[in-house]
Amino acid sequence: RDAAELALGALAWLLGDTLRAQRFLDLTGLTPESLRTSIDACATQAAVLDFLCAHEPDLEAASDALGILPEELAGARRRLPC
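Request: output the structure for the sequence above.
Response:
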């Protein structure tokens, strides 16, 4: 699958949980508005995948939700062109 597509799917999953979403915003420094305006940016997609890769339970849960292996989601980060 396309790395950007996986990152956006992972973001949708991430935002489905209020506490996880807030942790993501806190750790990345993004705000809801800056996230909306930068959602297509490679750096934002990389931040999503980096966030998930930094916490294995989230990586595994996101992978399950997306119907892929955790290795595929982690590999998407390496395939992003940024």
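The chain has a mean pLDDT of 95.
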